[in-house]
Amino acid sequence: MTPQGPQPHQPPEPTAPAPAEPLLTRDYDANPAQVHARLRDTYGAVAPVDLLGVPVWFVMGYEEVLRVLQNAGGVWSKHPDRWKAHAEGRIPADWPLLPVFQVNNSTFQEGAAQQQLRNAWTSALAPFQDHGHPQAQQLEQAVARHADDLIAVLAEGGTTGQADLAAQYARPLPLMVADRMLGFTAGRGEDVVMDIWRLIDAGADEATALERLHAAMTELGAAKREHPGDDLPSYLIAAKPDITLDELARELLMLPGLLDFTASLVCNVVVEVATNPDVRESLSTGAIDETINRVALLNPPMANLTFRYALTEVKLGGRTIAAGDPVMLSVAAAHQDPRFAGAIDWNAIRTTRAHLAWGAGPHNCLGRLLATRITAIAVHRLFKRMSKVKLALPADQLPWRPSPFMRALRSLPIQYELAPAPPTTAPTPAPPTPEAPPPTEPADRPSRSPLWTFLRGLRRPR
Ligand code: HEM
């Protein structure tokens, strides 16, 4: 099924009862928790909101979010064809979020179509996520090496200084992972990484960047069909041999976005470690996975999910959702729901794993292990190489990227001090996070390529 393209503009009619108040305000960017609390007081677990001019049900109750995610009665669909206002042409063609719902990848499929693509993702990701697989071990070593390279570049010229850890570390690192997993030939991958950056930052050349990216992914898929390698496109083709090049390109285009959520998790964990001495102490005892879980619970990077549509009239949180109405599930608000948050023992050594940061039910995250692993290595290397990481702004003044879906820092300004001597390779048999091996592949570490030149350009004057 293909979602319908943009329809001619007609004034939107509310599909949710008035009053629907705008969700994405300055208050929301600065402090979403406060907005959630106010909406919850006014409307309860499910609020009618206006999302950039489009009426949507905003679901904030933990039980309600979980119930829709689990979709036990099969009453919810993610397919935009089920969106009544969209089908009836009541969504403006220039609605800024429309492209998100038109990408037509597995995330927006249902039934057999979704299951087949999900199975393909599961087997294609396994070599990268299964810790015993050589591919996973090589990837982990590459992440550690890229992390060290990025730290070396931002610290060029001195052992102390200032840096923006979002732009200079957390965001490029997962994109380098994407480059590696996609199996581009040397050089080509960097062009693609730069385009992905433009796309994620929605810069002036966003539209052309997307076209170039789709073309690059199609070309990559065709090359991998001819000459398979040890990479994600080849594994996806092997798992679903009838996948078309267009379908494959759409699936591959998901990867950079998913890895950008990982970048946001890295930033959020760094803030938590830098501002909380107990958490920093726990890092040295190897409790990094617990720190990541705690941060995913407190500040989930995928804060709100793309819509589900009611297939039939359904009651949710005391509201009646009409067939074809969209609901936006707020993971962040669900985690703040007093019925859930109030039952958590925040002093426990292990925080609850019953949170929804990785989704739940038929669309739950397939890359959780990978995202957690990359984050653990990134944070481990950073705090190993830097003896001081101090936020350059109070934590409550850090700038957030305005976004309806993600909770990500726009920048993460820090003051740092490098550790006296770079750590040497530790010959531990099964390290919790890998050390970067010595550079055995010089070609893998371009120093004058456009990407590294760009990264050098981000260095802060002392
Ligand atoms: C911190 C980083 C990440 C977070 C917080 C995250 C979270 C999530 C969540 C909440 C969903 C469910 C979306 C929904 O139900 O509407 C999801 C879906 C998904 N995630 Fe992740 N994810 C992350 C990274 C990744 C990575 C790195 C990969 C793969 C390389 C990945 C692969 C997927 C896939 C394939 C789906 C779609 C599953 C489906 O629709 O059947 N994720 N993710």
Automatic annotation (TrEMBL):
Coiled coil: none
Keyword Repeat: no
Stored InterPro entries: Cyt_P450, Cyt_P450_B, Cyt_P450_CS, Cyt_P450_sf
Heme as UniProt keyword: yes
Biased amino acid composition, Pro residues: 1-20, 420-441
Record keywords: Heme, Iron, Metal-binding, Monooxygenase, Oxidoreductase
PROSITE patterns from the UniProt entry: CYTOCHROME_P450
Pfam family, one: p450
Domain of life: Bacteria
Annotated segments matching region Disordered: 1-24, 419-462
GO MF annotation: an example: iron ion binding
Membership in a protein family: Belongs to the cytochrome P450 family.
Name of the protein in question: Cytochrome
Species: [Actinomadura] parvosata subsp. kistnae
